[in-house]
Amino acid sequence: xxxxSVASEAYPLIKxxxxxxxxGALPAALAPHNVALTTFLPGYPALAAVxxxxxxxxxxxxxxxxxxxxxxxxxxxxxxxxxxxxALFARGGGPYGDATGxxxxxxxxxxxxxxxxxxxxxxxxxxxxxxxxxxxxDWQAAMAPAYLRYAPGPGAPAKTVVTIHxxxxxxxxxxxxxxxxxxxxxxxALDGVEYYxxxxxxKAGLEAADAITTVSPTYAAEIRRGEFGMGLEGLINDxxxxxxxIVNGIDPAVWNPETDASLxxxxxxxxxxxxxxxxxxxxxxxxxxTGDGPIFTVISRLTWQKGMDVLAGAxxxxxxxxxxxxxxxxxxxxxxxxxxxxxxxxxGRIGVRIGYDEPVSHxxxxxxxxxxxxxxxxxxxxTQLYGLAYGCIPVVARxxxxxxxxxxxxxxxxAAGVATGIQHDGVTPEALSHALRxxxxxxxxxxxxxxxxxxxxxxxxxxxxxGRRYADLYASLTGTA
Length: 481
Known about the structure:
- The chain has 481 residues and is of the alpha/beta class.
- It has helices at residues 18-30, 48-51, 86-89, 107-121, 138-141, 143-150, 201-208, 217-222, 226-229, 233-238, 275-286, 308-313, 315-320, 333-345, 358-367, 383-390, 400-405, 411-416, 429-443, 446-458, 464-478; strands at 2-6, 36-42, 55-60, 68-75, 78-84, 133-137, 159-164, 172-173, 194-195, 198-200, 211-214, 243-245, 295-302, 324-331, 350-354, 370-373, 393-397, 422-424.
- Helices cover 38% and strands 19% of the residues.
- The strands form three sheets. The protein has a nine-stranded mixed sheet, sandwiched between helices. Strands 15-14-13-16-17-18 form a six-stranded parallel sheet, with helices on both faces. A three-stranded antiparallel sheet has the order 8-10-9.
- Helix 6 (143-150) packs across helix 7 (201-208) and helix 16 crosses helix 20.
- The longest helix is centred in the N-terminal third of the chain and has 15 residues, at 107-121.
- The radius of gyration is 23 Å and the shape is globular.
- The N and C termini lie close together (11 Å).
């Protein structure tokens, strides 16, 4: 089965978050299930090395107002197509905004053109290329199913899947852009691309898709409610029969403490004592006092969604309980300042690095004792999966994929020998305080703590099962199940 995976980022080429990890892992995850997956990405400067000798398979003289080419190359051992449109993507900053973090004002055109090209690939407009499934990820690719629905190429259009990685990001724009989208007038309708009088990219994709997936079963249920659906809960409920939750996996070739080159000391569930070497490295890197007490870590965007405001207010208590914190992340300026101020109040107890560093994130998972993830909503989450794989115990809010992947260390779960982490209900100072105290009490019981670590590291969050479920979904859409 031939699948075109359309996304705005993919590890290791371009990454701002977990979306890239998922898209990068999918080709290998699906290959054992007789799925040949081709990834399609925008031609950012970061892709220059892999496109240097790429083959041109299609040219546009006017792709929504710009010249462009589709290039053929590889991402690792798997096929990669790239939309080379310099006027849209050859610019500094990040994939979505400039160096100051402000969104590009023409993001609507950039990702509409990208989606238009994806739809062309999936409907016979590019000679020699045909796909059974077009799998679009998040709002940046979600217009592709709408183009297939309203303005397909000359061939039979592929069946379509839209995966919601985070419904909070929707790609909403004013009505004035519609005339430049190269869509027929009938597309601007309630069951089309129209959204509250404007154009909604994610909404358009969800209306047009043959199937909708989210990245965990709990999140698939949560987005049917107003507090999680972000205005799209009505549409999700109307199309509930086409919505499936499939938990993300992690790539053991990238995230494996036994082979991870980023770790000073590699280890397994049978050699947990080696983690102490990594813990010492964290103390040095983050300026923390040396000690045997627990190191908590945060590897996150510093935003309201992630519950970082509540965590910032709990740091004095965390230190008073005997904990230390090593934080790696960036986000809201006020939250960055709050964590830096806490580090100044508690030198040697709190260390903060603003920004993101992939090897440091691996070190934190491989040496910290627990990872704090107090998210108000979390479609799937990957950092808790990395924590499980590395024996860095997740302390998580009971929501979305966090609820689906972490088994709370209550007395029954401990007695049954299945607990893998700590969950708390709600993202409030009281709930987080209780979770911190529970974590400290468990850490004070080395037998229980090491049991949690071993259980966590034995959990299977590879792509094996998730890859099979995606393959089954594709087969159901094409009638080959």
